[in-house]
Design goal:
This protein has 301 residues and is an alpha+beta fold. It is built from 5 helices and 11 strands, in the order ααββαββββαββαβββ. Helix content is 42%, strand content 25%.
């Protein structure tokens, strides 16, 4: 470059290096920018995945609660409907002979009132069965059932009873709803009892709620007896006693909480021989005549 005053050529050794180094600097800056962008993109994707997972988890939890409320409502409505029908029959039997044709007609009507009532019996004040409908169950007439838990409760307190589920001699899971029968003076003269096929009832009522979903549904007694499960092979098992559950300590601890509390939520791990699976669960209760069933919805973590 010429000096405008002297005409001499000036040499600035730093300028070529500056201009020659400029493309290298631009490339480094570009590479660094791309790296920062890539890192930001990775974190953004991870954040989006995390947010998506959180949203999916929230949606699943909301769906679980919706299923739980529906199951509770359906079971409660069915049990209350049956109980109301048994109560009405007890009123109609007032001042009637328990073994009379009039009583038989009332009992036949009660059997027909609900799909899950298998049979109806009447008992006198001494605890002997005096009538049974349909007629195919007449072989139980004359049996003394005073030592049965439901009968003892009803005779002692003079109030309706909803029994625990038991394995009926007919070969199915069953429970009874019984109401005392009084005369006009308020003296208990007997009772009327409806036998329910609980396993069939729960399968019919609940299966559609969880069909095609990742959620499971269970109903159990406070003693851990499983009355219904999405996995039908679990029905009838006792959570606290069956060997299949003893290798899952967190499940047993969770089950104790379920028995102790009317509602709640928790996480447990279960291993049925194919590896441990972690599950979330929420539960609530259905209560009839002071006896409760726990209703649970569960899904994989």
């Amino acid at each position: 470059m010429e000096n405008e005053n002297t005409g001499e050529t000036l040499f600035y050794p730093w300028r070529p290096s500056f201009y020659m180094g400029r493309p290298s600097l631009n490339s480094s800056l570009l590479t660094a920018s791309c790296l920062v962008l890539a890192i930001a993109l990775v974190f953004s994707m991870a954040s989006n995945i995390s947010l998506t997972d959180e949203r999916d988890a929230e949606v699943e939890e909301r769906m679980a609660y919706s299923t739980l409320v529906s199951a509770q409502s359906i079971i409660a409505e069915e049990l209350w409907s049956i109980s109301t029908n048994v109560m009405e029959a007890s009123k109609e039997l007032r001042n009637l002979s328990m073994g009379s044709d009039e009583a038989s007609a009332i009992m036949v009507e009660l059997v027909a009132s609900n799909l899950y009532i298998v049979n109806v019996v009447t008992m006198n004040a001494s605890g002997f069965i005096v009538n049974a409908q349909p007629e195919g169950y007449s072989y139980v007439i004359g049996e003394c059932v005073v030592d049965h838990e439901a009968t003892m409760e009803m005779m002692e307190y003079g109030k309706p009873v909803f029994s625990d589920v038991f394995s009926a001699v007919e070969g199915f899971e069953a429970a009874v709803i019984a109401y005392p029968v009084f005369d006009d003076q308020g003296t208990m003269v007997g009772s009327v009892t409806a036998l329910l096929q609980t396993e069939v009832m729960l399968i019919d009522l609940l299966s559609d709620l969880i069909s095609g979903t990742p959620r499971g549904l269970m109903v159990e007694q406070l003693d851990g007896r499983i009355l219904f499960d999405t996995d039908w092979s679990q029905i009838g098992r006792y959570t606290f006693e069956d060997p299949i559950y003893q290798g899952s300590p967190s499940l047993l601890a969770f089950a104790k909480n379920v028995s102790a509390e009317r509602s709640g939520e928790g996480v447990y791990s279960i291993d049925l021989g194919q590896g441990a699976i972690d599950k979330n669960a929420i539960w609530t209760s259905v209560t009839l005549h002071e006896r409760s069933w726990r209703v649970l919805v569960y899904w994989e973590v």
